[in-house]
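Researcher: I need the complex structure. Ligand is magnesium ion. Inputs:
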Amino acid sequence: AKMAAFLIAAAFAGIAGWLYAYAQRFVNPTPFSLQAGIEYMFMALIGGVSSVWGALVGAGLVTFAKEWLQDLLPHLLGRTGNFEAIVFGLLVVALMHRMPAGLAVTLGRRLGLGRTAPTPPKGSVEPLPRRERATPGETMLSVRALSRRFGGLIANQDISFDVKAGEILAVIGPNGAGKSTLFNQLSAVDTPTSGDIFFRGQKITGIGQREVARRGLNRTFQHVKILPTMSALENVALGAHLRGHRSLISAILRLDRAEEARLLKEAETQLVRVGLGEHIEAEAGSLALGQQRILEIARALASDPLLLLLDEPAAGLRHKEKDALGDLLRTLKSEGIAVLLVEHDMDFVMGLADRVLVINFGQTIAEGTPDQVQSNPAVLEAYLGGVE
Ligand code: ADP
Ligand code: MG
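Model: Output:
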């Protein structure tokens, strides 16, 4: 999406350059100099980059103010020079301090003219088709001898395990044990140094993040990754974007609204399902940290996953919220979704997981039911620093 945005912006810049040359019938380097680049940056920062009005206000303001300052400053200072750049520089420093979003965007927001976030569609919308559920007992994920080295550091060494449909596997271990590294490789955010990952019997090592997500393996992050200025509904709808098929062109021409409504409907359904029904239109960045974590789970659910990787979902959650999360995970389990869970709250983990995988210094030190793992001497040693 960022690449597409960049290319569209570049195309506009190209058209502007062509029109400029066409109108002037003469081209010299000055309009394309560093000075001009700095001026465009002033325009963008002063107006604000997140709205079309920002561009117009910024460009208008800088152009007129420049003319005016170029007349005024030589009188005041008694000599000529590009002093307006100093004034703009100070203005940008002040603005970044007081209104980091830019003048047009901030003022627009104060006047209530800000962007209106989309609302869930009213009336009946055909729900998105759902993926065929996994057969009970089917092996969803097989990890074989997975290793990841960062230079001399071995973050994961020869890790192997399986996860079945409808199973909750907890991955526990001290900080720095390599749990997030493992999740990053499973979701193709990171590439293993060696070893293989199979999802429903097919090798997924090296097929890329989008393809992994498309096949039904989705995740949340230890450090929440949301778009803070977009609404909760929009953030969750993003999770469903792979289930939409309209092209960029049809989106630009607004021919995708029927599909968009279905995606938003799905987002609403998932938000209600995870208990954020009251915050559908809230700005995602304004939610409490615990709610942002739940929002990420809703976003992952919007992709209609068969396997979920949850990296510390209960961190920062209050007691009641943890209970609700536990209930949600049990529901997912009963629907046949496989869940891989990294969590430090042992009460939470042991009450929920079917099996537990313990890693320390990148290596598997134990695997088994919660009871087996809790009485394993190697685990006690890793957690308590040795038993007498
Ligand atoms: P955990 O999630 O179990 O707390 P991580 O998987 O985040 O642990 O990290 C495991 C080890 O790998 C740590 O020592 C960490 O510093 C290291 N590590 C993680 N990512 C990188 C990276 N991109 N580059 C270098 N070292 C990393
Ligand atoms: Mg981690």
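Model: Summary of the prediction. The chain has a mean pLDDT of 90.
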